[in-house]
Specification:
about 220 residues, 5 helices, about 15% helix
């Protein structure tokens, strides 16, 4: 009785090349423990996701999406700071970077360079190799995905936005100490599902406002 084939679904990685991209999600993953080359690393992580409005999937016509997980660090050697500086076309001073609100890049456009690499588990995945400013005067297609902003700081957390995430992202966040702190403060139900949404500045969080993509204006990236 042979084991069945491990079917990985019909996931298609984003096409190789340099593409117009729109940032549609910023997700605070909290403090995570990861293992790299046999060593454990502990630190706060953040996920930034983009849609590629000019590159559409054949299956459903929706734009391809790509994402990268970063260490939430302002160190000059940190990938997050390097990509933000490359995106805006200039560096941050030490004073500027500590006052920079990451939410300000939500819905902003850029150029993403993407390659494909083999996964250890089989198949290929998209990898972002460079982030750069949008070319001036380039037409920007309308945004398809609804912006999503998740912050695990108690004064910004929005359970309604959290409940829109995939089960995998929810599980990652729920394993963090920041999530445990939110539970202690009564800002989330114990099982992480449902519950009232506290007032928040999160994009699209209002129950009464329709969730629609925003108009884009990218003369100044951020």
């Amino acid at each position: 009785m042979y084991m069945p084939e491990n079917k990985r679904g019909d996931f298609t990685p984003a096409p190789v090349g340099t593409h117009i991209a729109i940032c549609y999600r910023i997700i605070d993953l909290g403090t995570q423990t990861e293992e790299y080359e046999g060593k454990k690393r502990v630190g706060r992580r953040v996920l930034i996701g983009w849609e590629l409005p000019n590159e559409r999937m054949e299956a459903n016509g929706k734009p391809f999406i790509v994402a990268r997980r970063y260490s939430f660090s302002s160190n000059e050697k940190a990938s997050l700071r390097k990509d933000l500086e490359s995106w805006r076309g200039k560096g941050f001073s030490d004073d500027e970077i500590t006052k920079f609100d990451l939410q300000s890049v939500l819905t902003k456009t850029c150029m993403l360079s993407i390659m494909q690499e083999q996964k250890k588990t089989g198949g290929v995945r998209s990898k972002i190799t460079a982030v750069s400013p949008i070319i001036k005067g380039m037409p920007i297609p309308p945004m398809t995905n609804i912006p999503c902003y998740i912050c695990l700081d108690p004064d910004e957390f929005d359970i309604a936005e959290f409940n829109l995430l995939s089960q995998g992202l929810k599980a990652t966040i729920q394993a963090s100490p920041e999530w445990a702190q939110l539970q202690k403060l009564g800002l989330t139900p114990l099982d992480g599902e449902g519950g009232p949404a506290p007032a928040s500045s999160a994009v699209g969080a209002s129950e009464n406002a329709p969730r629609q993509p925003p108009d884009l204006d990218d003369d100044i990236p951020f």
